[in-house]
UniProtKB/TrEMBL annotation, chain A:
CDD domains: VOC_like. Residues 1-127 form the VOC domain. Coiled coil: none annotated. It comes from Phyllobacterium brassicacearum. It comes from the Bacteria. This is Bleomycin resistance protein.
UniProtKB/TrEMBL annotation, chain B:
InterPro entries: ArsR-like_HTH, HTH_ArsR_DNA-bd_dom, HTH_MetalResp_TranReg, WH-like_DNA-bd_sf, WH_DNA-bd_sf. This is Transcriptional regulator. The keyword DNA-binding applies. Residues 1-96 form the HTH arsR-type domain. Pfam families: HTH_20. PANTHER family: TRANSCRIPTIONAL REGULATOR, ARSR FAMILY (PTHR33154), TRANSCRIPTIONAL REPRESSOR SDPR (PTHR33154:SF33). Keywords: DNA-binding, Transcription, Transcription regulation. GO terms for molecular function: DNA binding; DNA-binding transcription factor activity.
């Protein structure tokens, strides 16, 4: 068994696709109509055959209070790994991306948190050393 | 400042974790719960649960030692030194 997809719950799939491709730099993998929504996934350019990120519609009534509670406490919905956090931070800020937390040390990683404009906070992480298995 | 308020302040200060939270907020204000938890990990690799930190923050807020505000949709915490200064002037100072 393997993990082929993980998801973020987004307020608006079309807006999310724009943000996750135009700003974050992921590429579209699947866009399949399913009822009133889409099975919409993106992948990393660095790993096009890697795990897909599903931009999942947040239509269920439990989703909004859950997302709001995470954002209130500053907690990211998910986390992406980058090679050079300072470079990504500078690149994304130049593109107008809003960071709720600028790059900081957090133990074995450096991290920053940005707003995906679709109701989520997203953590970027640079490993200072490999995590223990 | 009455005795009840003094009690709240000295009780809030009577815990190492809460004193460290105040030190963290002195370094930088307007921090979210997530950021405060991450700062604990950064400082010594030891992570305290969000619930624990959250309870400490509540106690500090009740004593007036921190204030909260909103940065966008995120709640942030900042140091408020006035009650500490008042407690010092009103009671502690005569022994200093």
């Amino acid at each position: 068994m393997r993990i082929y997809v993980t998801s973020v719950l987004v307020d608006d799939q079309a807006k999310a696709l724009k943000f996750y491709t135009d700003k974050l730099g992921f590429i579209l993998k699947h866009d399949i109509p399913v009822g009133e929504h889409r099975w919409l996934t993106v992948v990393s350019k660095e790993q096009p055959e890697g795990t897909e990120l599903l931009l999942e519609p947040g239509a269920h009534p439990a989703v909004q209070p859950f997302k709001d509670a995470l954002v209130k406490d500053g907690i990211p919905a998910t986390s992406f790994q980058v090679q050079d956090l300072n470079a990504e931070f500078a690149r994304l800020r130049e593109l107008g991306v809003v960071f709720t937390l600028e790059p900081m040390d957090a133990g074995s990683v450096r991290m920053a948190v940005l707003d995906d404009t679709c109701g989520n906070l997203i953590q970027l992480v640079e490993m200072k050393q490999e995590l223990p298995a | 400042m009455n005795d009840e308020e003094l009690d709240l302040i000295f009780k809030a200060l009577g815990d190492a974790t809460r004193r460290r939270i105040l030190d963290l907020l002195q370094e930088r204000s307007e921090r979210s719960l997530f950021e405060i938890c991450a700062s604990f990990v950064a400082a010594d690799g030891k992570s305290l649960s969000r619930q624990t930190i959250s309870q400490h923050l509540d106690m500090l807020e009740r004593a007036g030692l921190i204030t909260t505000s909103w940065k966008g949709r995120t709640k942030t915490h900042s140091l408020n030194v006035a009650p500490m200064q008042m407690a010092t002037n009103q009671w502690l100072k005569k022994y200093l």
